[in-house]
User: Fold these one by one.
Assistant:
Number 1:
Amino acid sequence: MPDQTTDRPNTPLLDQINRPADLKTLSDSQLTQLASELRSETISAVSVTGGHLGAGLGVVELTVALHAVFDTPRDKLIWDVSHQCYPHKILTERRDRIRTLRTKGGLSGFTKRSESPYDPFGAAHSSTSISAALGFSVARDLGGVLPEGQGDAIAVIGDGAMSAGMAFEAMNNAGHLDKRLFVILNDNEMSIAPPVGALSSYLSRLYAEEPFQELKAAAKGAVSLLPEPFRQGAKRAKDLLKGIAVGGTLFESFGFSYLGPIDGHDLDQLLPVLRTVKARATGPVLIHVLTKKGKGYAPAEAARDKGHATAKFDVVTGEQKKTPSNAPSYTGVFGDELVKHAARDDKICAVTAAMPDGTGLNLFAERYPSRCFDVGIAEQHGVTFAAALAAGGMKPFCAMYSTFLQRGYDQVVHDVAIQRLPVRFAIDRAGLVGADGATHAGSFDIGFMANLPGMVVMAAADEGELVHMIATAAAHDDGPIAFRYPRGEGEGVEMPDVPQLLEIGKGRMIQTGARVALLSFGTRLGETRKAAEALTARGITPTIADARFAKPLDREMILDLAANHEALITIEEGAVGGFGSHVAQLLADEGVFDAGLKYRSMVLPDIFIDQASPEDMYRVAGMDAAQIEAKVLEVLGVASIGEKRA
Ligand SMILES: Cc1ncc(C[n+]2csc(CCOP(=O)(O)OP(=O)(O)O)c2C)c(N)n1
Ligand SMILES: CC(=O)[C@@H](O)[C@H](O)COP(=O)(O)O
Ligand SMILES: [Mg+2]
């Protein structure tokens, strides 16, 4: 029951836990009680902050069991993606700050080395945990020294994350090195969307073949039944538990001992199994644990995404407190527009890497299921697959978040760009994204796409522009093309009745002024306009242009702006090495600096910016309207308001 005075759950046992070592003093039945309190505390905390709820609720018992059995931080507990780490944070000396999750100055929503010694390896992109656990195991065996010591390495990886190539690369290597390490496969039959692909079917078969109830009944005696040692002997744990032979598992062929499936919500199963493997394992062991995403909170269990991510919510009703939107989201505009194009052109198809809802392709999948491909968490494969779809005469839109496209970069270079294949990259979550912080910021795509020969790179300044760019990309058959747009809602502009086909490499003038030209690439155009208004009030009316293209550049427009203004400032939501760098290169090559142009480039600073609201993050980056105004004043040598007052 919640404590009515504070709106917080009653957690008498949890209140006595300051660190994981305290769990060692609890009996198994107290650990079960602790898990229940930990679940209530997690729900309560996320109701205040919003964030990733379902995954954490699914691993509450697992978190308790792991901390009760292993000795963190000496043992290295590595959470894959780490969106399920909130219960872990509560148990590892961060409960006092748990209601600051994902906010400016607060706890990160992911594990983070700089935050706690209990987070030995940061994550937020998926499928890195087995590689990391293997690295720790090898470092330990080679005598690597850490202040907290080095014990076992344990990776907890979800069924979605397990489908990615990197997880298999790591297992391949781990089986070969034969190091003692533990992989907990947390199988909840969910990714963000229902998982897809052969591995998912394989895992379902694994436990469909096991009469789970029988296994549950046998589990209390599991310790004595476990094979010894795990790595040897023909019989598998599951064979022993059930008394029949069902053949080797995929994981065993990688050199892992396989144990499971076990009920990940039952501490009577988890504790003996973990204690035994800790005592006896010599090589790599995979423990297959079945859990429910959203477990123990009805609204999450009932939700389509099992409470994967939520806004702040009312704990009693589960109702989310979403801020009403004033404009369509960029993602929504992309999803709607692509469906319209697909209706007219049956060659248009779409690829997502496990993010059908996040990229807006869910609508496409509904309407044109045979032309929409969720490839799972497999950005590398997704890009190459799209390249071959293009080579095969289709018109693929490869829709990925900027940050996740990073994982498919060699494929962008090697399979798409070098072969000049017309893949259309819809790059969502471009720029700073807010609560997910630095790991999810789309900071680098302008740089890494625009430096590729033959790649066309566009950025939408608003949702209307996005409509034009989708149409332009659909029509562009001569090589690859990319368009980027941010997370969240658009500017509220009037939507075009008919999409325009943009001339490749041509920008547009927004307003003509004097002395200084502001050349924006992307959605900073809104802040640029605000800055221009403030400057106009001070008697300086800047010229504003929207570049639309970082590659190819609108040379004519840029050189014209340079020739007719005392100063030129470029503004983009990306790191150094992007649009501004290309403009600077052009200006240098054309000798414009020799003629005395004052040039400044406003880019994301050379730091990883921690989570906050996107507005706050852009302020930290020095890129809001007031900071654009200040930059203009500085470059023109005009005293700013602050300086005048001083
Ligand atoms: C490389 C990469 N691609 C996509 C994502 C987005 N993503 C975050 S969690 C998630 C689903 C993970 O599913 P699973 O591993 O089964 O964990 P669960 O949420 O079910 O606990 C996805 C696709 C990501 N974090 N990293
Ligand atoms: C953990 C993860 O990678 C995703 O859940 C991500 O947080 C989704 O971000 P959006 O909310 O922008 O879709
Ligand atoms: Mg899952």
Number 2:
Amino acid sequence: MTKATGLTPPAIEVQDLTKKYGQHAILEGVNLQVKAGEVYALTGPNGAGKTTLIRTMTGLAFPTGGSVRVMGVDVHREGGRARSYLGAVVEAPAKFYPQFTGTQNLQMHANLASMSPDTPKIGRDRIREVLALLELTRMGDRRVAEYSLGQRQRLGVASAMLADPKVLILDEPTSGLDPLGIGLIHRIVTSLASNGCAVILSTHHLREIATYAHTVGILTGGRMVDTVDLRQRHAAYRFRVEDPVGAVASLERLPFVRRATTRSPYAVVHLGRDGGVPEVLSHLASQGIRVFEATPDHFDLYEYYRERVEQP
Ligand SMILES: Nc1ncnc2c1ncn2[C@@H]1O[C@H](COP(=O)(O)OP(=O)(O)OP(=O)(O)O)[C@@H](O)[C@H]1O
């Protein structure tokens, strides 16, 4: 299994993507990269261009400029080969034939996927497996017309992961799901990513996504106004000290401190890989700086998003 490293090429790479409808620019100079094993959440206000970006990434829409590569293959030049790496639900819930059962619909998807020379044959066992993963075993032999919105939503995810894609793209996979359904999608996405799949999903559920996405892209007015690396945000702590300014000046010199700022009465410290809270505490003690409290400085993605969208 490929683990994401600094040298690993991205599983999906969007470069300088522009999309116009007539004279109206919907996407302007959008760049993003997602590596194997990463979960990338795409968010932004209604009308920001998320669905247009997802449609373009999956090859359903053509860009006016720029490119999309999946596993190094251009989606718009070599669509068949690129799509053999790709599973997607665009404009959820996915469309299924209502008169056929969930299993029959998945079988049709499997047959279609297997027509590509680059995709191995998908057997009945795999169909049973994805139905079970999405907790749809009991619904498998029921007509899709009888499915609830949430069940159709889950069937969409089942069909997208059927061919074991290297890149999974899901447009609002948790909209319409109940809390248990949302938890299920989170677990599945996390498990796929830990097995090396690159996952991109669009969402408005920021506080949920903050618990398991690695990166969040904020799209506003067709531009990617920010890309937030949540893994780095999680390594922040605040220390209540007598002299936050003096503490920050001293901590900034430490090699494992990436950034230190004051938020009186706290010194807020972003830690690198090779240092932790005990090292900060012992350093402050050695400098004669008393610490009254040390606590994780939880990053509030919702507050951050609000600031970025209100003042892009
Ligand atoms: N086929 C089309 N022709 C013209 N304009 C379009 C077309 N499709 C989308 N748009 C416009 O592009 C903009 C972005 O729409 P899009 O659906 O990509 O936004 P979104 O971020 O997914 O929104 P939401 O969060 O509401 O789903 C909107 O202003 C929309 O009206």
Number 3:
Amino acid sequence: MAISNNREPKIATGPCGYVLEDVPHLVDYIPDLPTYPNPLQDNPSYSVVKQYFVNVDDTVAQKIVVHKDSPRGTHFRRSGPRQKVYFESNEVHACIVTCGGLCPGLNTVIREIVCGLNHMYGVKRILGIEGGYRGFYARNTIPLTPKVVNDIHKRGGTILRTSRGRHDTSKIVDSIQDRGINQIYVLGGDGTQKGASVIFEEVRRRGLKVVVAGIPNTIDNDIPVIDRSFGFDTAVEEAQRAINAAHVEAEGFENGIGFVKLMGRYSGFIAMYATLASRDVDCCLIPESPFYLEGPGGLYEYIERRLKENGHVVIVIAEGAGQELLSEGMNQQDASGNKLLQDVGLWLSQNIKDHFSKQRKMTINLKYIDPTYMIRAIPSNASDNVYCTLLAHSAIHGAMAGYTGFAVGPVNGRHAYIPFHRVTERLNRVVITDRMWARLLSSTNQPSFWDLNKVEAKKKEETKEETEGQLIVGENHTEATSASRPKE
Ligand SMILES: Nc1ncnc2c1ncn2[C@@H]1O[C@H](COP(=O)(O)OP(=O)(O)OP(=O)(O)O)[C@@H](O)[C@H]1O
Ligand SMILES: O=P(O)(O)OC[C@H]1O[C@](O)(CO)[C@@H](O)[C@@H]1O
Ligand SMILES: [Mg+2]
């Protein structure tokens, strides 16, 4: 197997089109590091596990639906404990930082990193960095012990607090060096993982024995490659409460319209899954599927038809949907450079009211529900909690084994170490030519708002991307439902 030079992405190839997109390792730039037996082999809880250590050559396939003659395709290194580790327990000085938007499960991952490092590897020195990346040089640190974090998974938010906005990578790495930190666990969305990748590059440039491990999170589920991001399941569950309320209100009045706006900046996964789960929704609008209001096949016509047929309508809209319909362009950004969106929920609900009262002379009763932060400011549900444990343990095992510059996450149900660039190079978005969106259309009976020619063109575009290795079709599946948890 040939391995390319270590500054470039580490790609190894094998027979039958096998490709391993590997993650960096400390020995790539610090040769001759000593290794130690993994202390887990003496841990009574883990010693009973048959074949507890993962074979170093185990990899996880990105594409599992294959044909007889198809190449084996891209693989990622399987996560899990290794027989040899590159840190002695008393040598480890770890830190944890949370950045970007809040997400259910952040406290669980913090807890599980602290407890996992302590209980599995005997690590005692763990610091919490306060307030996101800038906290490395602008805030005090918080010593974290199993006792301090014992109950935090029952609370929403992050005990470390978070932030958006610019930071100075060089100052962060100075602070890491000054404090003698050698394992950094970074929790956050796409922007955070980009930041972690730059920190890793600087650490490598300085030749430091410091591991940088990313644990991606976002309720939007917009991180590619991994099956789903933690917090998403909880957010979808909480969104049900808003949809239920909208349905009750809509049913309770003549020509009732329940209108719910959910988060989802560029990706409509929350809206799509909340709609599919609820079965009370008549129309789901997401950023990936443009729609129009007036005329045949438009939204107004559909609403009117549903009101006549059913007496009420429930609409769910993702915050990023239909932005192109809003007249005034808004070019503002948040502190991190993310485009600030216009409030499509308020805009569209007002337009629907105006259309029916002024143009159609119909009395409608529209109730607008915008749960915004309520779906992400809550503690994670049971399934996300278990998922968070697996993510934290994967990250710890990878760090102890000397891997670095990686993000963790399940790929087709198996946890893997994924190079940063693969989780940051694009956003995971709903594929509207995939079967999951078709299921949604069939469950709501809403129009697709697309003409057939456009659908055909889109299908061709996505088939092309798939054959070029981007695996577009099928990514709508956030497979890890409560019924089938990802396995480590
Ligand atoms: N391209 C980038 N390069 C380096 N650092 C970045 C980059 N983009 C964002 N960051 C850093 O990551 C942190 C969080 O970014 P951001 O606010 O975009 O949230 P996020 O991690 O994408 O989470 P969310 O999904 O909630 O938006 C910020 O402090 C920012 O400095
Ligand atoms: O108001 P904030 O904290 O910038 O976050 C809002 C954004 O964060 C997200 O929840 C992603 O974390 C998006 O869905 C939403 O647009
Ligand atoms: Mg982001």
